[in-house]
């Protein structure tokens, strides 16, 4: 199965169809998925990594008021690519440009090691090859309780029966997990229904409510640690105190950092979206860095035209001029899957430990190049990322190589904080 990287996956458990009117789903939608779709041999694509499946799935019986069957997916070898293993369900009817669809499903986590306790998968609605156009991309997550999702999507092309698919991808992340999905529908409301007319599940989290219990203690800590008393004396030019003076004080900067990563292409763009993006960055944050632009592959323009060194420098300059505290990410992500394509020929297939010695110097040259180009704009750097599970370079040259990377970074980053 070929699934584009831009995809996000969506699972459909149709073996027991829901009564749409019983669950707050508008009537009038035409079902686009067969009731036995999940029982078909091709309903789940296990994927493969080093000859072993990324995941496995089975149809199970569950107790739920709306459905009795669900698909249980065990993610055994996640490789960070959500589309590398997926449930795949084709449409049984043609759709037209302008049609409004609704994805409806229930999702829960059975086993995961996330700090939040949430398992996740990625839902997407996709067209046929060669474009594999995505009409919906949405990550779903839940604890061990069933969570209902309603996701409207607008179709912009005429597609024949079977050309549109609903997927749920299981390869994302880096940790094993098990989750279930059930009661899934894909409904077509035609071209006379607006997206806004259909229900939509909004992203949220436990404790988001304004009166959530944690907020009281948080506000007390803010009063204690982030605030302090001060006094102002107003005097005349000759030093005489002015009684009863009325003054206005306006805070210009926080002493604490409030941050988020940015994308250079959006921050430096000329579109209306970029204007809004810049305004929100200024409104909400005083600390930032690039999400992907400073990773080795994008820095070498291996990720396409959206990533250009000059554009990245322009974005960092923009942040500096507005007094943002900035962080660079990342100098070395030491596994083959995260290294640039230009370095891969130096590794022997199946044996990272036999990498050519020249690779060692190439890494040091990259550190020298990117730190010299960005040293004026960044306050701190991640030198190494995720060495616990990304260690091909250490397997090849020994753990001591990490010390060399820090020393190389320090050559051009004399005052910046350096992180592992």
Q: What do you see in this structure?
A:
- By secondary structure, the chain is of the alpha+beta class.
- It has two domains: 20-197, Galactose-binding domain-like (Jelly Rolls); 259-419, TIM Barrel (Alpha-Beta Barrel).
- Helix content is 19%, strand content 24%.
- The chain has helices at 214-225, 264-267, 272-284, 296-299, 309-321, 358-374, 392-397, 401-412, and strands at 30-31, 44-45, 55-61, 69-75, 86-90, 100-111, 119-126, 134-142, 147-154, 165-169, 177-188, 259-262, 287-290, 325-332, 380-384, 417-419.
- Strands 1, 3, 4, 6, 9 and 11 form a six-stranded antiparallel sheet that branches. It has a five-stranded antiparallel sheet with strand order 2-5-10-7-8, with no helix packed on it.
- Helix 6 (358-374) packs parallel to helix 8 (401-412).
- It starts with 29 loop residues before the first strand and ends with a strand.
- The model is unreliable at 1-23 (pLDDT under 50).
In short:
The chain has 420 residues and is an alpha+beta fold. The chain is built from 8 helices and 16 strands.
Globally, the shape reads: globular
End-to-end Cα distance, whole Å, is 37 Å
Derived structural class: alpha+beta
Give the beta-strand count.
16
CATH architecture of the largest domain: Sandwich
What is Rg? Answer: 26 Å
State the fourth-level CATH superfamily of the largest domain: Galactose-binding domain-like
> Per CATH, what is the topology of the largest domain?
Jelly Rolls
**Biggest sheet statistics:** 6 strands, antiparallel
Mean pLDDT: 91
Beta-strand portion reads 15-25%
Q: Could you spell the SSE succession in H and E letters?
A: EEEEEEEEEEEHEHHEHHEHEHHE
Low-confidence stretches: 1-23
Overall tally of domains? 2
Question: Roughly what percent helix?
Answer: 10-25%
CATH class descriptor name of the largest domain: Mainly Beta
Total helical segments: 8
